[in-house]
Structures are given as C-alpha cells and as structure tokens.
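To: structure subgroup
Subject: Chain for Friday's discussion

All,

I'm putting the inputs and outputs inline so they're searchable in the archive.
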Amino acid sequence: MRFTRARVIPVLMIALTGAGVVALQSPASADVSTTTITSPLDGAHYLVDDAHSDPVETVTVTGTSDGTTGDTVDIRCFGVAGSRDWNGGAFAVPVQVDGTFSAEMPITAAKASCRLRAVPDSFTDGASLAAFSGPTITTEYLTSTKVASGPHAGMTYDFDAVFQGSKAWNEFHSVGRGGLFGSQLSYPGGISSNYLWSGAAAGLPHRSGAVRSAVRIDGKDAFSPYTAQAALNFVDRPGAPALTYSAQRDASGVVTIRETDPYVLCSSVTTYPPDPGACPEFKTAGVQLERTYTTADSDRQVRVRDVWRSTDGKAHSISGIYVENVNTVDAQSGESTVVGMKLGHGGYFTDPDPQITLTAPWPLANSAELRESNTAPDGDLYVPRGAVTFGFPTGVQWEQNGLINLVAASIRVPGGDYRLIRQSFVIGTTDAEVLAKAKVNQSLITPYRPDAWIRPAGGTYQGNNVFNTTGAGQTVAGKRTFLIVIQNDGSGSDRIRIRGAAHVNGFGATYLKGATGHTSITYAVTHSDYVVNLAPRSFSYLRLVVRPPSSAHGQGATFPFTLMSLNNAYRRDVVAAQVQMPIS
C-alpha cells in the first residue's frame, strides 16, 4: 500500500487589473520567459486551522514579467530541487500590457515551506526554473476531521498537523489514518528532499488481501476512531468512538502532539474485512491508546510514545501491526525507487519476493535502517535515508517495496494499568549520521532492560537477549546446580530485584552469591529482597542448588527465576531450571 498525495488545483475567480480596454491591441507575444513575484514577501507564514479551513483563506499574489497582454502564467509552489514537485496556486493568470499580473491564491498552495514562482502556462515539468523568481512561503496545518451529519455530527475521528522545522518538516495524522504521515528534509529557499516516511507508526485500516485488523484485542479485530469510520462508517451506530488530540510547539521549536484513541469492537462481525451491515453497534474493547509525538533534532527526529491503557480494570492482550511506510517515488525524476533495508550487522537488502518476516530474538532496542533509494549515493541531499528504532519484541515483515510492518504479536496490558511501547524515527542524508542517531535512540528507548541467562553445571547458557515472563526459550534441564547470570542490558544504571522459588513439588532451593563461594542469599532471594546495582552491560552471578525430596518417585520440578527493574517494573525477565528424579 502506498499513500498518494493529490495536487490541489483550486478553481479561482481571477480579478483583472490595470488599464481599461484599448482601441488597438498588440498581438500576443511569445511565451513569458522571465518572472518575479513581488508579493507576498519572502518568509510569509500562514496557518490553516479549524477556524480558517472552510472557506480556505486566500492571499493576493502580484508580480512582474517580460510578457504582455494575451500571455498567461501559472502560479505554483515548488518544493524538491527541480521543477517536477509542486503544488498548484492559481492557473492561467492573465498578464497585463505592462507585464504585471495579479491573482488570489489559496494559502493551501503551500504545504510546509516551498518557493512560489510564476511560470508560463506552457511550462514543462523538469525545465529550468532559473528565470522565475519568488519568495519562500510556509503554510502549516492543524485541522480536525469530523463526522459531517447524523447523530454523531461534529465528532472528531482524525486530524492533520503539519509543522515546519528549521531542518525538516513533518505531517501527522491519527494512528489509524497514517501516523507519521510525511517527513522531508528542508533546505534554504523552500527546497526540500523527497519524502522518506510516508505513513509510519501507523495502525492502518484494512489493506488489500488483509485477513485481520491492524490491532486485535483479546483475539478480536478492534478499531480506532478513524478505522471504525473508514471500515464500518459511524452512521447512526451507538458507541461510536471519538478521538481527542492537542498540538503545540514550544519556544525552542519542539512539537508535541497528544492523541487518545478509544478502541471498539463489533462483536457480531466475524469476517475481515468487516461487513458494515453486520455491525449494529460498537462496543468498547476496554483499551485505549494514548499516543504522544515529540520532535527533536530540528524536526529531523520524531519520537513516538504509545500507552496502551486498560479502561475497564481488566487485563488485555493486544496483537498489533505497526506499519512503517517509506516513500517510493523520486520527486525529481518522477520515477519509482527501490527501498533498501538493513537490520543489525547485515548489509542492505531490497524487497524480497515472496514477502518475508524476520523474527526476534534480537537485542532490544533495535533499529531498521532504511534508504528511500538503495542505489542513491551516500550523502544525497534530496534522496534521504533514515531509521526506525523500536523497543518491543517484534517480527519485521517486509510486505512489499517500501512497506515494512513491525508485528508485535503479544502486548500484555495489566488490569487497570498500561503497557508502554516506544518508537523513534530519524531522517538524514548519510548512513553514518542515521546510524549514530539510531544508536542514541536505542539508549533512550531502553534505559532499563534486565536480562537473565541460565545454564546447568557443565552445560551452555540459555536466555541471552531473550526477554519474556514465561521462561520460553530460556529454560534448561539439569541435575542439581545451575549458574545464573544477571545482566543489565539497558543503557542506564539499574537496580534489579531478584526472586526465586524456595520450594517446588517437594524440592528445595538454596541460592549462593557469585559464581563460586558459599555465601547463602536464600532468604533474600526467596522473599524478593535481593537487589543488585548494575552499570550498563555489567553482570552479576549467583547459583541455584536444588535439594531433592527425601524419596525419589520420578517426580520433577521447575524453578522459575525472575528479574525486575526497580526503575521500570514492566521490564522483567524469567529463566527457569528443571530437575527430574529417577524412578526408584
């Protein structure tokens, strides 16, 4: 799936200016070859918001040219270097006998910053712009999308926010519409790069061939306000969810956007895509998403904080697909690009056929580095590259060229509590720049990450870089003695609490400090009072010695061993030791 951006070509009433009708009129000259827009002035800034979007405000554009009566010009706002990328402002604007021209232009002719120019109406995309000068103008957006009619009229289910920074600009929609909807690097003179992110951190409505919704809650397809409206239509259905949001930019230029999306179910809908006729009403899923976008690095980075919150006091299991969409069109040439991706220590590779899913475990946090064009030279100012950094266990699914999914199979939300999921996005021009910033984001996303390893005496360790609370993939069998490693895999110093079972099925446990020695810490470990302070990437050791029951009848036992960060109680890891007695 790709997002497409249609050019807005408004219909305008053009006011003619200048002298009245002359007795004799010279024949039309050749095409206009040079123009200068004199108004608005360079640096003009406009805002489209709910109070000024219907009708859209207009601005008077005036200028001079070497044309005359009978000539016309088109007023366009150009972005990416080259003349193929533009938004329309006013068309077939008549030139007066003295070469001047004037027209009313909607301020939506600009999205973020671009260079306003008047070009001949016969101008060909790709031709030189050197002879056509004009100001850089900026239009930012903060508008709501609301239900138009019916009992839910006026209810908000999406928003559009466009903010221009000093080094980049970003567009945001609600999570269901497209999340980080667009990102471009910005340069002086209204010039920008191609898009990189084109719908990222998104939980999108159903796509062609999809067999499930982007978010499933407790095994059922669930819908945000936008996806509920897009897939099922609110109409007059009771229980329709409303989105709330706010956006601001502080004095230092940092943009913060907060949105809340209550998720709903249609319990009678059992197929996907859903049949609107089979959904008489919406019912709460008991979960809402509280998302925060924050910009950094002069808007070249966007950090996304998702709080999945239980609203009904019950525990919930969420299966989520975060869509990370990368632009695949070069605005300078109009040609398609082939996106490259790199995970971990391997090289860049392109869209495989058929699609593949690369599964965890990886060290967390991790980053997927992406190039808008895998063949563009490193350092190309107009064909960007970037990285998405994530701190949750996931499979990385390459669905098609430019469309990457982060598949979080199981996000467990405690009853009456929340689960935090974070992602960070970088846009830049070189692989080295992007990687350096991604590594910083890995540290910010995962400051606390306890990691337990375990091995039986004489055996090999299991559990390094495996994180779960079930012991899956990090349970080992042995006779009596097990060595346990406690590692701080986070980026900050951490206090890690350790708990182990004292008795299981007639077996007892003794816990000893260190890899060697005889210092017992059994009471502290079995009463959750044993805490170690560890710097990033440092280790601590202890041993578990299992005492068998007094008589052997083939019984067995599993001793779980839990680590928990005291700085973030949701950061836990569990390993387990299994013992088995022979049958006497």
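Points worth raising on Friday:
DSSP finds three helices and 38 strands in the chain.
Confidence is low (pLDDT under 50) at residues 1-29.

D.
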